[in-house]
User: What shape does this take?
Amino acid sequence: MTVTAPPVPVDAVPSGRRRPESRRASRVNAGQARFGYVFVSGYTLLLLAFGLLPTLYALYLSFTRNGQFVGVDNFVRVFGDYRFLPAVGHVALYVLFWLVSLIVLVVVLAIVVHGIRVRWLGASARFLFYIPGAIAGASSVLLWLFVLDPTVSPVSALLHAFGFESLVNVVAVGNLPVVFTVIAFWAGAGSWIVIMYGALNNIPVEVMEAARIDGAGPVQTAWHIQLPMLTKWISYMGVMSLAAGTQLFVEPKILAQATKNVVPEDYSLNQLAYLYAFRQNDFSGSAAISVMLLVVALGLSAIFIFRGKLFERD
Assistant: This one.
């Protein structure tokens, strides 16, 4: 009977006796690790300077006033402000419309685009999806001021059909969640469609072929195969979109200026925090609003993360 000795681990072989390929691979891995640390260091510094440190300072301000610890007094005072709950309702309604439209329409459009697979849906078309998102937020709102004004809009016939005769009618407070959802969807949906399209391309061809052989149609394939495999990407989109949606500020601010305060200056929580800080000189109250917004956003993001199993390995 022949006895085969177990293989000797590479680490157990003296470095002088290792094969050249092993030493070369070790050097390559070490070099890649160093370059990785260099690239990550820039993000880490920016995260500390503009993310972690301001958050810690906001926490300090929210529990103090004029340098004295006051407990939760700032939170109670802000919560009792007559402008706070309406601002919460405005932001909550907008975020709900925004997330539902994004998750439903982006996923459906990505699956349709992936299923059609015709020539005009190549690199050029994917680039066109990105163009609206490349426009800065303020510029996007200015563009939509033109589109939403029935007197000059290219879709004035549609606006008149809904009974809108002027920009003031269109941007009435009751219409703003829908208006902001349309603006945000136009600016951000294209890039997410491209991301979802790339995720669909990563589904193994064998899985799709097996579904076709089993007689699954496009709807069944999308529901039972593509959607489950897109769960993590949908969760990621939800987290990022939630973070952006709760920071509503530029759109109502510009609309308020363009309509001579038909849109109130305290429409969103970020606007209210701005008024506390720079109109009332109350940075503690502003920090309290920011901390509450952060806690709510983190809680809702956690739902997407755990329900979508975002950090679980397949």
